[in-house]
Specification:
The chain has 19 helices and 6 strands. By secondary structure, the protein is mainly alpha-helical.
């Protein structure tokens, strides 16, 4: 019997909490101002347009917190991915997953030498930011809010979108000032890999010490208990929980969770099709509010056995994007999808998603894409929440594939994707 992977924070030490993502508020303000200056259609034609075209997703700090509790230990610490153990299955969130979710540019971009040439104009800095050498995000935001020149509203808004939505900066943090020079030519601006920058910020946030957050939570519980013993009551009667910030585009983790966990998507999301980028596939039904996403419910769902896609494989219409933005060769797997049969018109075989997940899981295991769990060590309380050092022998990478085989597979996958959509959109 295969052993379950070891969590960085043991299950017995899990605690309630929620993360804060500031970007939604900033995005709402940027959208409103762009609408007021008739800039909406203009931005929709850019790589950022997917965020304007997406349906509303109510970000859940509870879902993302419960995910972060389930980070697994690995023998090789990689800077471009994190593994979770959910639904009795290991699942990867990496650069390619973030890219398939958002469709943003994840690689390439101008060289350092090109940037020095492209970032020569300091007009925006002179006209709106007093030609400051260092600019905080709050200062940039105030300049955007006060601007009344349409073209400059657009340029300042793009910079505010990067800082406030894609990076979710704190107000007092200094921004990359050359961005305000680069945006003078918007075509050059969109050649920069903003997606990679956002992803790296998000991945850095996922490395937070959950043990330290747990200690803060325990302290809150202890304080509340002491107040009760003294007969004091809080102004607001709330259950103690850990609250903390995550930076980068945190909603990508929620979109990804809906994509890879059928049961989670059905309970808290609404599937709207099979499109690219994949964030276009999901929204939050009006019937689901923030208060409906409860800690015990999400934790129980993650602990039960369910169908989980371990890795997001690009569909045939995503291959060109994948080649230009992700490292390595396009992954493929012998799926045997011809075995999937459609039922009567208007209905689909409900095992399609399970079939896909099972075959992918077998391929992942066979190709050793998932790093093996570290060998058991003598328990040490001081290191229980620390990722062990990288192993001297790294696991082999995924098996190579050629484009013709992949395209053939992708066409066969479309049948399963259609069935998956039907399952997710079917009434309970």
């Amino acid at each position: 019997m295969q052993m379950a992977p070891e969590l960085i924070l043991p299950l017995a030490e899990h605690f309630p909490g929620r993360i804060t993502y500031r970007g939604n508020g900033y995005f709402a303000s940027i959208k409103a101002k762009f609408e007021a200056f008739n800039l909406t259609e203009r931005v929709k034609e850019t790589p950022f347009g997917v965020f304007w075209n997406a349906s509303e997703l109510k970000f859940s700090g509870v879902i993302v917190h419960q995910l972060l509790l389930r980070k697994t230990k690995v023998t090789e610490v990689k800077n471009d991915e994190v593994w979770f153990y959910v639904g009795k299955t290991e699942a990867r969130f990496g650069r390619s997953e973030f890219g398939l979710i958002t469709g943003l540019k994840m690689s390439g971009g101008p060289s350092t030498g090109d940037l020095s040439t492209l970032c020569e104009s300091d007009r925006i800095l002179r006209d709106y930011l007093n030609n400051a050498k260092r600019v905080t995000f709050k200062t940039l935001w105030l300049a955007f809010e006060s601007c009344d020149v349409a073209d400059d509203v657009y340029k300042l808004g793009l910079c505010a979108f990067v800082e406030g939505v894609l990076l979710s900066r704190a107000e007092g943090v200094y921004i990359w000032t050359d961005m305000l020079k680069l945006v003078e030519n918007v075509e050059n601006f969109f050649e920069y890999p903003w997606g990679l920058l956002s992803y790296q910020k998000l991945l850095s946030s996922t490395s937070k010490s959950m043990s330290d957050l747990r200690k803060n939570y325990i302290d809150k519980v202890s304080t509340k208990d002491k107040m009760k013993k003294k007969g004091k009551t809080e102004k607001k009667i709330t259950q103690p929980e850990a609250k903390y910030n995550v930076y980068g585009y945190a909603p990508a983790l929620q979109y990804w969770a809906f994509e890879v966990m059928q049961d989670l998507g059905k309970k808290y999301g609404q599937c709207r099709g099979t499109r690219f980028p994949r964030m276009l596939n999901w929204s939050t039904p009006d019937s689901v509010t923030r208060h409906d996403v409860k800690q015990p419910d999400v934790a129980a769902l993650f602990e039960k056995r369910m169908v989980v896609l371990q890795i997001l494989y690009p569909r045939n219409w995503e291959v060109d994007y994948w080649k230009n933005n992700c490292e390595g060769e396009v992954p493929t797997v012998e799926m045997g999808l011809d075995e999937v049969e459609e039922t009567q018109a208007g209905t689909q075989d409900s095992t399609a998603f399970e079939t896909q997940a099972q075959r992918v899981a077998e391929y992942v295991k066979r190709s050793k894409i998932i790093p093996p769990s570290p060998p058991k060590e003598t328990p040490d309380a001081s290191t229980s929440a620390t990722v062990p050092p990288a192993s001297a022998s790294a696991p082999p990478s995924s098996a190579p594939a050629n484009d013709s085989n992949y395209l053939l597979l992708a066409k066969r996958l479309e049948k399963v994707e259609a069935q998956q959509v039907a399952i997710l959109t079917a009434p309970d």
